[in-house]
Specification:
By secondary structure, the protein is an alpha/beta fold. 38% of the residues lie in helices and 15% in strands.
């Protein structure tokens, strides 16, 4: 990418970031009404998702992210595009199958395709089809050259590559249909935290955001705690008490009541603070309104076990120094990824630059 193109992109994308951090009347109206189309997309959660992208698109991080990468197409090989927005000669049609579990979860994939100067063929989730269109229209208003760089489709066809996000179940179908073209196919992942027992009240309160933001529906939400033996859960429960309002959401409450009834009927040992059920379990993926936990002997023991689960973990929330391949973030930071925090640890830009 030429220096002029890099400066242009930083300017335009940071302008979008500024607008997302300071939503205008039209965007605010959309944020307020999303809950009528998807009950999980409350105004607070939707606003948080919008501002998380706004915070991501800052000049400093964009400059780092857009620095030359090994394998990137050489600027000398690029010729001005004709009637195709910012697309370069040799650009590909990249099919994107977006998830819809949390607001705008697929925006980063779209951004990567646009910045790499390919054409994004977007199959949006029915659960999150309006926000992504609005944000891209905002981008086109700032930089009209992007207008020809994306399209929304009901069915993918005539694609050269695919990035598909789904579950372990849908990934089998994705592999069948898209396995013959370059692809990134994402499966289920969950995030975890490693606690030592010396965390402050503030740190545990921030951990509450990692657990409860977006109702715990995202792959970056913490679904399991790793704690030392004889861990005292009382300070943890006291610190997350300010998040208790989550129980007032009817769909979350339904999940809490259902899982609680199952544990009571089955006689399963668990902890309950009135809005979160905490249960010892070896699995990573906990049901909604449930947090699993597992004891470790020492940090070396925890790291060995986590390393064995690395393919199932999106990120690890901890202030402890951990020597693991998975991304480690601080308390309260799991839902604030940087531009280079790629899902599943797969460098999307590197993939796109080699097409």
């Amino acid at each position: 990418m030429s220096q002029a193109k890099k400066i242009y992109l930083i300017d335009r994308l940071s302008q979008l970031g500024d607008k997302l951090n300071n939503p205008d009347e039209a965007l605010r109206a959309l944020i307020e009404t999303e809950q009528h189309y998807n009950a999980w997309f409350t105004p607070l959660n939707t606003m948080n998702a919008v501002k998380a992208i706004g915070g991501m698109l800052n000049r400093e991080d964009l400059a780092v992210w857009l620095s030359p990468e090994p394998g990137a197409r050489s600027p000398e090989s690029e010729k001005p595009a004709q009637d195709s927005g910012l697309q370069a000669q040799g650009s590909k049609n990249v099919g994107l199958i977006l998830a819809g579990n949390i607001p705008l979860v697929g925006f980063h994939d779209v951004l990567c395709v646009l910045v790499s100067r390919h054409h994004a063929m977007i199959k949006a989730s029915t659960q999150d089809a309006r926000l992504i269109k609005h944000l891209l229209n905002m981008l086109v208003e700032i930089a009209p050259e992007f207008a020809g760089s994306f399209s929304f489709v009901e069915r993918l066809a005539n694609f050269d590559a695919v990035i598909a996000t789904g579950s372990n179940n849908t990934s089998r179908y994705f592999e069948y249909y898209f396995g013959k073209v370059p692809h990134i196919i994402r499966k289920n992942r969950n995030s975890v935290t490693v606690l030592t027992g010396i965390e402050s009240t503030e740190q545990l309160f921030l951990l509450g955001h990692d657990i409860f933001d977006f109702f715990g529906l995202g792959c970056r939400n913490v679904s399991k705690l790793w704690v030392p033996k004889a861990y005292d859960f009382v300070p943890f429960f006291e610190a997350i008490e300010p998040h208790a309002d989550i129980i007032n959401h009817h769909k979350y409450r339904n999940n809490y009541d259902y899982n609680k009834s199952i544990y009571l009927v089955n006689g399963d040992k668990h902890l309950d603070n009135g809005f979160l059920l905490v249960k010892e379990d070896e699995r990573l993926a906990s049901p909604l309104a449930v947090l699993y936990f597992e004891y470790y002997n020492d940090l070396d023991d925890a790291q060995i076990r986590l390393a064995g689960l690395s393919e199932q973990i999106q990120c690890i929330v901890s202030e402890t120094e951990l020597h693991l391949d998975n991304q480690v973030v601080g308390f309260g930071e799991s839902q604030k990824p940087k531009l280079w925090d790629y899902a599943d640890g797969v460098d999307t830009m590197a993939f796109l630059n080699t097409l």
